[in-house]
Amino acid sequence: DGGITQSPKYLFRKEGQNVTLSCEQNLNHDAMYWYRQDPGQGLRLIYYSQIVNDFQKGDIAEGYSVSREKKESFPLTVTSAQKNPTAFYLCASSIDRDSYEQYFGPGTRLTVT
Amino acid sequence: SQKIEQNSEALNIQEGKTATLTCNYTNYSPAYLQWYRQDPGRGPVFLLLIRENEKEKRKERLKVTFNTTLKQSLFHITASQPADSATYLCALDMSRNRDDKIIFGKGTRLHILP
């Protein structure tokens, strides 16, 4: 089956630790995105990548980092510099930069205590 | 800056009736507008995309309108069913800002009452 996978579904970390969230897609999509969703809030864009080895900051990139070494993979690292890391993180992809229909993964709920 | 407003309150609709959700935007003229469905604890699922030169788009029981003068999109679900209960998000493209992203509204929670 084609799609986007995110792992794990739930993640717990202690404050001060970096944590990496996985996002893999087998849709052969060029573009990938990371969003954060907080209760009662819309999706906020963290980082996006239009092609391999290239990515751009979104609206709330501070405290996060990404890499795009392979077309299929776009991992997100939540660093200790992120002041409020507890949230629901969603990864998405689209065919290319001109296609605005996005396909989302199931999400990872990160809790930092 | 661009702003998207969706019904902030939850919408309760009796089964079988038509549900209508509103998306208003300001300070921008998108080339596209999209609607997504999101179930609790899951990622959004794309439903419909409508272009600025399209007044209306339909897909099965779903209908979307796009009024660029009013800066508003309406999303209709006809013959609503309890399974339609979810949060519905609208999203605008930012291509006219030379931006390769879309921005999402906060969503409207829809409850279809049996």
Query: Largest sheet of chain B, if any?
Result: 6 strands, mixed
Q: How many distinct helices of chain A?
A: 0
Estimated structural class of chain B? mainly beta
Q: Work out the largest interface and the residue count of each chain.
A: A-B, 26 and 22 residues
Distance between the termini of chain B: 41 Å
Oligomer: heterodimer
Q: What is the averaged pLDDT score of chain B?
A: 92
Order of helices and strands of chain B: EEEEEEEEEEE
Please give the count of helices of chain B.
Answer: 0
Dominant shape of chain B: globular
- Provide the β-strand percentage band of chain B: over 45%
Tell me the radius of gyration of chain B: 14 Å
Q: Would you count the extended β strands of chain B for me?
A: 11
**Can you summarize the main beta sheet of chain A?**
7 strands, mixed
Distance separating the two termini of chain A:
36 Å
SSE series of chain A: EEEEEEEEEEE
List keywords for this structure.
heterodimer; A: globular; B: 114 residues; mainly beta; six-stranded mixed beta sheet; five-stranded antiparallel beta sheet; 0% helix
What does this structure look like?
The complex is a heterodimer of chains A (113) and B (114). By secondary structure, chain A is mainly beta. Chain A has no helices and 11 strands. The mean pLDDT of chain A is 93. Chain B is an all-beta fold. Chain B is 0% helix and 55% strand. In chain B, the strands form 2 sheets. In chain B, strands 2, 4, 5, 9, 10 and 11 form a 6-stranded mixed sheet that branches. In chain B, strands 1-3-8-7-6 form a 5-stranded antiparallel sheet, with no helix packed on it. In chain B, a hairpin with a 4-residue loop joins strand 7 and strand 8. The radius of gyration of chain B is 14 Å and the shape is globular. The model of chain B has no long low-confidence stretch (mean pLDDT 92). Chains A and B meet through strand 4, strand 5, strand 9 and strand 10 of A and strand 5, strand 9 and strand 10 of B.
